[in-house]
TrEMBL record:
Annotated substrate binding sites: M79, H80
GO biological process, any: xylulose catabolic process
Annotated site, Important for activity, chain positions: D6
Highest rank taxon of the organism: Bacteria
Protein name: Xylulose kinase
Protein keywords: ATP-binding, Carbohydrate metabolism, Kinase, Nucleotide-binding, Transferase, Xylose metabolism
One Gene Ontology term of the molecular function aspect: ATP binding
InterPro entries in the record: ATPase_NBD (IPR043129), Carb_kinase_FGGY (IPR000577), Carb_kinase_FGGY_CS (IPR018483), FGGY_C (IPR018485), FGGY_Carb_Kinase (IPR050406), FGGY_N (IPR018484), Xylulokinase (IPR006000)
The protein's role, per its UniProt record: Catalyzes the phosphorylation of D-xylulose to D-xylulose 5-phosphate.
Organism: Parasedimentitalea psychrophila
UniProt entry tagged with the keyword Aminoacyl-tRNA synthetase: no
Family: Belongs to the FGGY kinase family.
Domain Carbohydrate kinase FGGY N-terminal: 1-242
């Protein structure tokens, strides 16, 4: 048996699977995010440990026989977080999360440093790890002086599981300290951020073993034999493993809290000027490129709070078929934006509101705005030479037929919908655990899900959505000027 642990921003999901990847059970535990100042987003790493104890106890209680046969654990986690520990392994301050924007000035400084983009393959975004440490150096020098190791969130959980400081290629590629082409820490990038190699964890591939579960935990959980802990990876790379997206040209779109359009690559070909991320995949000799929007279903969550109706209720007001774009436009920059703008200061806006505008009109505009932002991502990916002919659609937003048809028509790409099941990062993490324990052929482990249905673009409306997207894209510089 194998367990995949997906350390999300709002909670931990555990998935128990057999050696063939069939899902036996899942368990979840929630925790909170702290926002002590505007633009700050932090988490207490001890909450991750508590959540892990909770989900493991739940799986053991519900499936004691299967749990006792545990052979491996895989890890997935939200990227870019800075968990700082001292020489004794004690946490020095709350973890600074991926959606924390306090280090925008430090990110701009590092991004302008010679050779940083070339080696890291990416713009230094404010959410990345390196600028967070520069912020700590400038604002909390007494803590910075005590930093013995910097761990990404899931790697702190690994430290609790194994007692070892280990990271993986895909997650570490989002720090701005890694030579992403060579898949190793870069002395030059570390020096640019005033960091040292000894402050970094040892690196392994996501499908390799990073160590074994500590004896005390095995005893607590009633496990007699060794339990391998796989390298794991950043959440999007591991989600790609969950849907079998690791061959050149494979791709998926995720309508989650944030929005992701990801394409697997068999070579390292960065284009940082596009604001497209180029990271190591969670499997060897593979990379991926992705465009990221910071708010996708989060935009619908925001609208639901404003209107006092649940997201499901709002989505339920939309017809099954689209009939053309709304006259009202929504720019989904509620938390700033990454691809293609790299703008932490931009904010969202409705354009074209009318006295007759209804909640249904606002809902349609939100779904279209997110779709147009993902079209921006597709256009950015195309400039890097990435061409997708069809993609899988996953995430909570994929439950809305109206949103799917809007997105398919906006992207002018068929969207394949997997059969019902859990195909997210927790399954990908379990698959990486299987790979690390058995050394089986990855193509046999990381299979693609069966397609239940394909949502085709509406050929009669593709041109209209393209024209509306062009008007949407032209709004950004005017909104930027209005907010400056």
């Amino acid at each position: 048996m194998y367990i995949g642990l997906d350390l999300g921003t709002s909670g931990l999901r555990a998935l128990l699977a057999d050696e063939g990847g069939a899902i036996i059970a899942t368990a979840d535990a929630a925790y909170s995010v702290s926002t002590p100042h505007p633009g700050w987003s932090e988490q207490d790493p001890s909450d991750w440990v508590t959540a892990c104890k909770t989900v493991m106890a739940a799986l053991k209680a519900a499936h004691p026989v299967e749990f006792s046969a545990l052979r491996g654990i895989g890890l997935s986690g939200h990227m870019h977080g800075a968990t700082l520990v001292d020489a004794g392994g004690q946490v020095l301050r709350p973890c600074i999360l991926w959606n924390d924007s306090r280090s925008a000035a430090q990110a701009a400084m590092l991004d302008q440093t010679a050779n940083v983009r070339n080696l890291s393959g990416n713009i230094v975004f404010p959410g990345f790890t390196a600028p967070k440490l520069t912020w700590v150096e400038e604002n909390e020098p007494e803590i910075f002086a005590r930093v013995a190791k910097v761990l990404l969130p899931k790697d702190y959980l690994r430290y609790w599981l194994t007692g070892d400081y280990v990271g993986d290629m895909s997650d570490s590629a989002g720090t701005s300290w890694m030579d992403v082409g060579k898949r190793e820490w870069s002395p030059e990038l570390l020096e640019a951020g005033h960091m040292r190699l000894d402050q970094m964890p040892r690196l392994v591939e996501g499908s390799e073993s990073s160590g074994t579960v500590r004896a005390q935990l095995r005893s607590d959980w009633g496990l007699a034999g060794p339990v391998t802990v796989a390298g794991g990876g950043g959440d999007n790379a591991v989600a790609a493993c969950g849907v079998g997206c690791f061959r050149d040209g494979d791709g998926f779109v995720s309508l989650g809290t944030s929005g992701v359009l990801l394409a697997a690559k068999n070579s390292f070909a960065p284009a940082p000027e596009t604001a497209v991320h180029t990271f190591c995949h969670a499997v060897p000799d593979t990379w991926y490129q992705m465009g990221v929007i910071l708010a996708a279903t989060d935009c619908l969550n925001w609208l639901s709070r404003i209107l006092g109706r649940t997201p499901a209720e709002l989505a339920g007001t939309m017809k099954a078929e689209i009939s053309g774009p709304s006259r009202t436009m929504f720019l989904p920059y509620l938390s700033g934006e990454r691809t293609p703008h790299n703008d932490s200061q931009i904010r969202g806006s409705f354009v074209g509101l009318d006295i007759a505008t209804s909640p249904e009109d606002l809902t349609q505009a939100v779904m279209e705005g997110v779709s147009f932002a993902l079209r921006d991502n597709l256009d950015a990916l195309k400039t890097t030479g990435t061409n997708l002919s069809r993609i899988l659609a996953i995430g909570g937003g994929a439950k809305s037929r109206f949103w799917l048809e809007t997105l398919a028509t906006t992207l002018d790409l068929p969207l394949d919908l997997p059969e019902k099941g859990d195909f997210g990062a927790a399954l990908g993490a379990a698959r990486l655990a299987i790979a690390a324990d058995t050394n089986a052929d990855l193509s046999m482990i990381m299979t693609t899900p069966k397609v239940a249905e394909t949502v085709e673009p509406r050929s009669d409306l593709v041109d209209r959505y393209a024209e509306t997207h062009a008007r949407y894209r032209a709004l950004y510089p005017n909104l930027k000027a209005a907010l400056t």
